[in-house]
Automatic annotation (TrEMBL):
Pfam families: Acetyltransf_1 (PF00583). Residues 1-134 form the N-acetyltransferase domain. It comes from the Bacteria. This is N-acetyltransferase. InterPro entries: Acyl_CoA_acyltransferase, GNAT_dom, N-acetyltransferase_domain. The keyword Transferase applies. The lineage of its organism: Bacteria, Bacillati, Bacillota, Bacilli, Bacillales. The keyword Transferase applies. Keywords: Transferase.
Length: 134
């Protein structure tokens, strides 16, 4: 397994799976080096996209692992890889979120994230905000 910055060659793979942002933003995120791609023998098997909360706190927006590769620790490896890069860049705090009806909240807590609040939108389940000190 290999984790690297996404490139234009990964664009189609990502947009076919990321239904949460407009396609045009995927290219921007690739150019800004805010998407990592996960490969197994040169085949894309997942990706992680991030941005910045308040323009200065790294915020993991989305992590995706193709279904047949889930449950193997790949997501954890991706998150820990990203955390190390953020630490090397001098960040001391990182964030992510997940909906309260998703299992991901338990995954994040197991690897050291702590509940930091929540957001309730009219048409969505409760969004749980999680932070981790690096």
């Amino acid at each position: 397994m290999k984790i690297e910055l996404a490139t234009e060659q990964d664009y189609q793979y990502i947009v076919e799976r990321d239904r949460h942002i407009p396609e045009s933003l995927v290219r921007t995120k690739i150019r800004e080096k805010e998407i990592f791609i996960i490969k197994d023998s040169e085949k894309e098997i997942g990706w992680m996209r991030y941005g910045y909360f308040w323009d200065n706190i790294p915020f993991m927006n989305m992590i995706w692992i193709d279904e047949e590769y889930r449950g193997r620790g790949i997501g954890k490896e991706m998150v820990l890889y990203w955390e190390e890069i953020m630490r090397e860049r001098g960040f001391e705090l990182i964030m992510t979120s997940t909906q309260s009806n998703e299992e991901a909240q338990h995954f994040y807590r197991k690897i050291g994230y702590r509940d930091a609040g929540c957001l309730l939108l009219e048409t969505q389940p409760l969004e749980v905000i999680l932070t981790k000190n690096l």
